[in-house]
Amino acid sequence: MNFSSEQNAIFAHFASGEGNLVIEAFAGTGKTTTIKAAFEHAPEARILYAVFNKRNQKEAEEKITDSRVEVKTLHSLGFAFIKRVWRNAKPDDEVETDRVLRACPQFRDNKEFIAELLKLVGFAKNTCIQPTRADMASICEAQDIDPDFISHGLAVLEASKVADAQGRISFNDMVWLPVAVGWVKPWYNLVCIDEAQDMNLPQLMMARAASSGRVIVVGDSRQAIYGFRGAVQDGMQMMKVTLRASGAKLSTTYRCPKAVVKIAAEIVPDYKAADSAPEGEVGYVNGELAPLVKVGDAILSRLNAPLMPLALQLLRKNIPARIEGRDIGRQLIGMVRTMKASSVPHFMERVEAWLAKQIERLDRCKNPEKKIEATRDIADTLKALAQDAKSVSDIEARVNSLFQDSDSSSKPAVVLSSVHKAKGLEWNRVFLLSDTFRKGKTKEEDNIYYVAVTRARQALFFVGGKGAQPETKPAVKADEAQVGKNCHVAESATSIAGNQALPQETISSGFEVLVPKAQVLHEVGNVISIGGKEIICTRVTDSGATFREISNKGAIHHLSACIDPTFILRKDQSLDGSKKQTGTEDDNDMATKKKTVAAPAAKNNSNEPAAQVSYAGRGERIAALVAKGKTDEEILTIIRKEFPGSSKSPVLKTIAGKRAKSKEDAKPNPKASAEKPTAKKPAAKAPAKKKAAKEAAPAAPESTTPAAPAIPPRPTPAAE
Asked: Buried b vs exposed e over 3-41: b needs ≥16 C-beta within 10 Å?
């Protein structure tokens, strides 16, 4: 085999027998092949290859035949250290609950208390070695746990160091316990740690302590997506400093084609395609997905909930489909049973009530956005699973059939997966649900996007929205460009590209910015300034982009951008050059009318009042949609189309209020029943009509224009 210069440099380091090493190995760069060959150069007699999970262990054992090398997960290594001391030790997570009850017998019947304390103890064992009160306080703040649990948590941690009468230990004990009590022994001359970017502090410390000689750390810092689970932030850099290690790199991918590498290189500039790599394909899908996918393809999402309706749709079309993650299925079944519902409608009500209760609780927390999003993802997933189900048992059966793992026993199918579950897997064709990703928001969000993109071996498709396109050159100024068809240049147009400021009056005057297809300037997450106010790009499609104000929590204004010609148009002109009507038109009704364009000029001499965002008629419209039996998500989508700027939270609260009112009105009136036993109660529209009399404008008709999403909350990985 012909090895690259990067690989040969790694082999030379292994052969030297000296010094620790940290290898930055990008996605698909032949990491396992390189490590296998490197072991053959190493002089050490006993070598440990520490991998992240059982799937990684099985793959490595099939490739590595060197008898000096043991392949183990760090949990199995830790369990071996425990067995040397507690010889009858056996895994059983119920022991943790028993420890809680022994430490706090007064809370035996308080399930919420037990759950919160278990959560605190779990995070402590995954992030600390010898947790102090200060450590526990930091965990409580980060995870929204009452600080009153700290003393109880410390008591449970101490109880964990005492042998259970039945020999039981928890999964979290396997790594934390041998490190915390000093049972780790330097059994190996060389320890090589794989997927180091995903490991927590106890795991890294155990691997280091297990070596009497060198430590080699391998990973991809841009695939670090498990921070929510306790993985060390910048763990590879920490190990490099702690070990005083040299650095090496594997930057050439042998998995992804050149077109896909070009997309991934926006996140990792050093990422390169092999010279022999095919060009590959990158495409954008705006229509129905089902006719395009085939068995063997993958559909990836940042969240779980959007996968459910797609999976069910494929199955209805007799296309084999499954969702990655048998463990997720088990968690969802637990949630289904927790609801204790007697029917599917009752189940939906219980899910809504659970969600409302959780949001109310989380809203009181500091920075609740990530937790609320994860909670919504669970609720939306449960509701999607319940659609068209005949009974609660049908929901459970659906979960069992849908959620499976990719292994030798899995049947060929379209695989739908969260990015977290897709990590380590690859497919010839990959479809990304673009609107679920938040590239550019945080480093971890960029990492999630990079992991998703690099699952593709041949073709990558962005579904719904622009997705992502390679960065482009800045737009030319209006007076330097050729006028596009039916495009009228404003006398003093100001480019909205980059971070250039636009006049203050444009912030409330709904306008369209036209950008050439070859120079797509806006991506979701881009922030620009208008008159001292910041607006963020929240959606880009083939027909336009949506921006929303983020400088305060007050009114949110929409600015639409169309991807076609190059210029900002006059305020009084439309795309076809005709005069824009003023005075009687509702500027918020743009989604259902011919698109008009308002050009922000340097000076606005027009006496036309700026169009303000109006929510007149929104309550009546929500009441009507509730009466039609629409789901919360369907109503939210419609309202955002018809009332641009509508925030998610107040709309959902209004929906909840209308549903409660509708149920109240639907209850039979005993007197009315006695007088007219056969009469049906009219639909609950009277409250909406009363409100309509007070509101200024009627609701806009339902639109087919794609809805602009709300300003994304602070990002979080998919709830697993």
From this structure: ebebbebbbebbeeeeebbbbbbbbbbbbbebbbbbbee
In this structure, what DSSP letter does residue 568 have?
B
Helices (H), 144-293: 150-159, 173-181, 201-209, 235-243, 258-264
- Would you state the pLDDT for residue 512? 33
The vertex-541 CA angle with 285 and 617, nearest 5°, equals: 120
**What are the start-end ranges of the E strands in 555-635?**
558-564, 573-574, 596-597
> Closest Cα to residue 75, out of 60, 89, 54?
54
Per-residue pLDDT tens digits for 172-191: 999 999 999 999 999 999 99
Rounded CA-CA distance 322/215 in Å is 40
Distances (CA, A) of 714 to 30, 523, 532: 34, 17, 23
Tell me: pLDDT of 692 over 50. Answer: no
Spatial separation of the C-alpha atoms in residues 560 and 571, rounded to whole Å = 13
d(CA 37, CA 35) in angstroms, rounded, equals 5
Average pLDDT, the chain: 75
Q: Which two tokens stand for residue 432?
A: 């990304």
Read off the tokens for 333. 């079944």
pTM for the whole structure = 0.61
Could you tell me the two tokens for 662?
A: 């509708």
Q: How far is CA 66 from CA 38, 370, 626, in A?
A: 11, 45, 66
Which whole-number Å values give the CA distances from 438 to 332, 445, 450, 525, 578, in the listed order?
A: 25, 6, 11, 7, 38
470-507 burial, b if ≥16 CB within 10 A, otherwise e? eeeeebeebeeeeeeeebbbbeebbbbbeeeebbebbb
Q: In whole angstroms, what is the distance from residue 478 CA to residue 488 CA? A: 10
pLDDT at position 408 is 58
